[in-house]
Design a protein that fits this description.
Shape: elongated
Radius of gyration: 26 Å
Strand content: 5-15%
Distance between the termini: 69 Å
Order of helices and strands: HHHHHHEEEEHH
Largest sheet: 2 strands, antiparallel
């Protein structure tokens, strides 16, 4: 179809709304196609790939345009994975490489990671995927104090629950930002040291990555805060567990 006269654009408000709504999406797709050609001309150099944030914009544009746009195989390769369900399926495949898994994890964070136990709920409380562990006899090998070698210590451990995933950046950040979180003196008491700059560290760029550079004191305070929110006892696992 072609517009018979430009006056049609000025006097047909609905058409103008359609154009305005799709203009940004179409421009994103055109840029994607142009940058794909540049990437191919540079022998598929990774330095010419888009950031995860730009890929998210492209995914939103493609969803908006639907069947109006069909990408070539090269353009899909340039864009990388954008369908969360397909990425989760790929993670279940043993042959998926570590490098690919790292990419999928980062991409899921940019697009919205749907896995339980990764993020937070509506009131910004960490959504923990708990797994039940049956108790039993546990053995630990320790170094002998005065003689060479090791000796075995045994202990009966009761039933407990443990989180399926490490605490993520998004979950720990919720603790830092909450009004009743890191700044609340209730979680520190007299037994924990609170670094005055402890809420300003860079704990990781991607929200679904494990939180790093968290001290033992901060980890205990996080557990106390989370336990209060869940109305349950939350603590760090011990060595026997």
């Amino acid at each position: 179809m072609e517009v018979a006269h430009e006056a049609l654009l000025r006097h047909w408000p609905t058409l103008q709304e359609w154009i305005d709504a799709r203009r940004g999406a179409l421009l994103t797709v055109r840029q994607l196609q142009a940058d794909t050609r540049t990437w191919l001309a540079r022998q598929k150099s990774p330095s010419y790939l888009w950031s995860h944030e730009r890929v998210r914009e492209a995914a939103e544009a493609l969803n908006q345009l639907g069947s109006e746009v069909s990408l070539s195989d090269e353009e899909r390769e340039f864009l990388g994975p954008v369908e969360p369900s397909a990425m989760l399926t790929e993670l279940e495949q043993p042959e998926t490489t570590h490098k690919r898994r790292a990419l999928i994890g980062q991409r899921l964070d940019a697009l919205g990671d749907p896995r339980p136990g990764i993020g937070v709920d509506a009131d910004r409380t960490p959504d923990i995927a708990w797994r039940a562990v049956s108790g039993g006899d546990a053995a630990i090998e320790i170094e002998r104090r005065f003689l060479r070698g090791t000796k075995s210590l045994r202990k009966q451990v009761g039933d407990f629950h443990i989180a399926r995933h490490p605490v993520t950046v998004a979950q720990y950040r919720a603790f830092l930002e909450a009004d009743d979180g890191w700044r609340d003196p209730r979680w520190w008491g007299r037994d924990l040291y609170r670094d005055s700059d402890g809420d300003s560290y860079d704990f990781g760029r991607f929200g679904n990555h494990p939180a790093v550079y968290v001290s033992w004191f901060d980890a205990l305070a996080f557990c106390r805060w989370l336990g209060e929110r869940l109305k349950a006892t939350v603590r760090l696992p011990n060595e026997w567990e």
